[in-house]
Amino acid sequence: RDFTKVISGSEDGTLRVWNMYTGVCGQVLAGHRSGITGVGFHDPNLLTGSWDGTVRVWDVNVDS
């Protein structure tokens, strides 16, 4: 488990993975056509829901 990340979803449909100690955004994930309305964790994945009516499953453990 990685307790150094903070996740944010935004109105532009992107998901951002931040380092909570440095404040640096390490990943920007795009996949929704509308704003993200919810974020959930189901180890080892991250799930997001959007106003576009979709749910996405993400693997944020992949370094980019």
TrEMBL record:
SUPFAM superfamilies: WD40 repeat-like. WD repeats lie at residues 1-20, 29-64. Keywords: Repeat, WD repeat. One of its GO terms (cellular component) is transferase complex. InterPro entries: WD40/YVTN_repeat-like_dom_sf (IPR015943), WD40_PAC1 (IPR020472), WD40_repeat_CS (IPR019775), WD40_repeat_dom_sf (IPR036322), WD40_rpt (IPR001680). The lineage of its organism: Eukaryota, Sar, Stramenopiles, Oomycota, Saprolegniomycetes. This is Guanine nucleotide-binding protein subunit beta-like protein. PANTHER family: WD REPEAT DOMAIN 5B, WD40 REPEAT PROTEIN. It comes from the Eukaryota. It holds the Pfam family WD40. It comes from Aphanomyces astaci (Crayfish plague agent). The keyword Repeat applies.
